[in-house]
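User: Assemble these into one structure.

Assistant: Restating your components, then the assembled model:
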Amino acid sequence: GNSVTQMEGPVTLSEEAFLTINCTYTATGYPSLFWYVQYPGEGLQLLLKATKADDKGSNKGFEATYRKETTSFHLEKGSVQVSDSAVYFCALSDDNQGGKLIFGQGTELSVKP
Amino acid sequence: KAGVTQTPRYLIKTRGQQVTLSCSPISGHRSVSWYQQTPGQGLQFLFEYFSETQRNKGNFPGRFSGRQFSNSRSEMNVSTLELGDSALYLCASSLGTSGTSYNEQFFGPGTRLTVL
């Protein structure tokens, strides 16, 4: 079945450091890919998405490119801030109806001043 | 536009009891999905309802059930609670219609269930 694997955390960075969180997937067909972020005590928020190969999703300085040849969707940010501290989830959906997401295990990011 | 709301936010039950959680989707959204989040298993899909019908189902035992009403509000029920059911239960709503564009899921804040 479809699955998502992302790098384990926690990841601890200093402010203004470069961030990469790796995500790879296994899926039949052409899934849509997502990064969600969860702040303490809150639900999930969609950070960015890509719906086809070579698409680049971007939002709030975060970027991820849908790489079909490597089945990857790595999250990057050039300069992290303390406010980026959260748990990040990579996810896929194999239908456009939007009803079912398959998530990676989450990566906790802690940014120190 | 109001977001997804879930009630109650916190719940404490004992083993063997049953529990019902409620989710009100964003106005106009017809799809409601439920997820269980635990430290050990992460985020797992429970089921999805669209227009009062279960459209997708995850790999959970029959103790977990749900329903959707004509106004798209949804409830999930867990019967004969076990300690391992302690989790954050998240619901998400989306338009849910087919098409070339992805229908984004909007998540509620979750219900924290503790089973003692």
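The mean pLDDT of chain A is 92.
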